[in-house]
TrEMBL record:
Subcellular location: Membrane
Gene3D superfamilies attached to this UniProt entry: MFS general substrate transporter like domains
Transmembrane helix in keyword set: yes
Listed GO CC annotations: membrane
InterPro entries, A to Z: MFS (IPR011701), MFS_dom (IPR020846), MFS_Na/Anion_cotransporter (IPR050382), MFS_trans_sf (IPR036259)
GO MF annotations in UniProt: hexuronate transmembrane transporter activity
Official protein name in the record: Major facilitator superfamily (MFS) profile domain-containing protein
Bilayer topology term: Multi-pass membrane protein
Annotated Pfam families: MFS_1 (PF07690)
Main localisation: membrane
Length: 431
């Protein structure tokens, strides 16, 4: 085969698989937020009860991230992703069987455990299939599936609720994962074993000169405990810990915010929510494109990531003004900008893990950092639940949301500063 043989570009098929998996992942976790008013009446939930549902998910998700991150590094992305999806799809459907608050808590915990495998597997797949100059864009594309899932949910779930009831909303959305699984098993394999990829694309994937055999050798694995002694691991951990909780707030509390503040009817398809989550799709892909464009323009990789992330941190600041929104569309604009900036930030912070660490350690690092994000997602709901319940008891729940938006506005700049202090140059780790 000659050097000028066109490469096959099969890696974009792989990104499409990751995109749809992430879409399903977020569709399944978003259902409960849209059914919150219905389930509050069905099971007589308070804000504290709903907070406990969120925390049950987050605790299991945090534990699962550590387990799945190391597990996927050991058994590989194909089987690791398969097991993760089966667990979370069954758990999503199991919500329909819950007869009590405790039953819902168990279903949420099972869902969190299964869904925790998605991002460690997906980021490792991107590291396996893309050179560094394309990883942020690829990550941004598949990460936008989170937003598509959040866009589809406000349309699909109310329709299922109205026609079939809340139980079928969980069953139908949970079953979609098994459709994806068929395509995953048929279409996916690592590049060196895939029959649909030619030598030109393999060479392009490894054009950053990483040793292919070392990177993919099954015996050359790294224990995640060993990674805790590396400064670059903590750079990723801190960034995730401070910013992931903001996204969980957008996922689990925005429907309730629009319902209580602007009287949005969540039993019908919700255009404001669709617009907010559509904006995040643009942010995710645009965020990945921006840092990739910086790199292709000659900017060093780590400087490109940091510059892009600083821009996105600034874009979150205007959410502070949501307290002054006089109508729902002003709130949609401010919150949509912040949510889009989060996803742009997310596309880049995930890519820093694959930039700094060799492929054989990527899933473990992503698992550790994402676990930290989930721990933040466990702590933050305690604060949210306390603030909102106090504001509700005082007769003005909007005040509680205003306090939370102020915290959201500052989180990304604080995270960026601490990441910079921990790893000013973000050097590549040699294991």
């Amino acid at each position: 085969m000659t050097n000028d043989t066109p490469k096959t570009n099969y890696r974009w098929v792989v990104v499409a698989l990751l995109f749809f998996a992430t879409t399903i992942n977020y569709l399944d976790r978003q259902v409960i937020g849209l059914l919150k008013p219905t389930l509050e009446k069905e099971f007589n939930w308070s804000e504290q009860d709903y907070k406990n549902m969120v925390i049950a998910f987050q605790v299991a998700y945090a534990l699962g991230l550590v387990l799945f991150g190391n597990f996927i590094d050991k058994i590989g992305t194909k089987f690791g992703y398969t097991i993760s999806l089966i667990v979370w799809s069954v758990a999503a459907m199991a919500h329909a069987l819950a007869k009590s608050t405790l039953g819902f808590g168990a279903a949420r915990a099972s869902l969190g455990l299964g869904e925790s495998g998605n991002f460690p597997a997906a980021i490792k797949v991107v590291a396996e299939w893309f050179p560094k100059k394309e990883r942020a864009l690829a990550t941004g594309i598949f990460n936008s599936g989170a937003n598509i899932g959040a866009v589809v949910a406000p349309v699909l779930v109310p329709w299922i609720l109205g026609v079939y009831g809340w139980q079928m909303a969980f069953i139908i959305t949970g079953a979609i994962g098994f459709v994806w699984l068929v395509f995953w098993i048929i279409l996916y394999e690592i590049p060196t074993r895939h029959k649909k990829i030619n030598a030109a694309e393999v060479a392009y994937i490894h054009s950053d000169n990483e040793d292919v055999e070392v990177a993919e050798a099954p015996e050359a694995k790294v224990k995640w405990v060993e990674l805790l002694g590396i400064r670059q691991t903590w750079t990723f951990v801190v960034g995730k810990f401070l910013t992931d909780p903001i996204w969980y707030f957008f996922l689990f509390w925005l429907p309730s915010y629009f319902s209580t503040t602007f009287k949005l009817d969540l039993s019908k398809p919700s255009l404001p929510l669709v617009l907010v989550y559509t904006a995040t799709t643009i942010g995710s892909i645009g965020g990945g494109f921006l840092s990739s464009w910086f790199i292709k323009s000659g900017m060093p990789i780590f400087k490109a990531r940091k510059t892009a992330m600083f821009i996105f941190a600034l874009c979150v600041l205007p959410i502070f003004a949501a307290r002054y929104a006089g109508n729902i569309w002003q709130a949609v604009g401010l919150i949509g900008l912040a949510a889009a900036a989060h996803q742009a930030w997310s596309a880049n912070i995930f890519t820093t893990a694959s930039d700094m660490f060799p492929k054989r350690a990527v899933s473990s690092v992503v698992g550790i950092g994402s676990m930290a994000g989930s721990v933040g997602g466990i702590v933050f709901p305690f604060f949210i639940g306390w603030v909102l319940q106090s504001a509700k008891d005082a007769g003005n729940i909007t005040t509680g949301y205003n306090i939370i938006f102020s915290v959201c506005a500052c989180a990304y700049l604080v995270a960026w500063l601490l990441m910079h202090l921990l790893s000013p140059r973000m050097k590549v780790v040699k294991l």
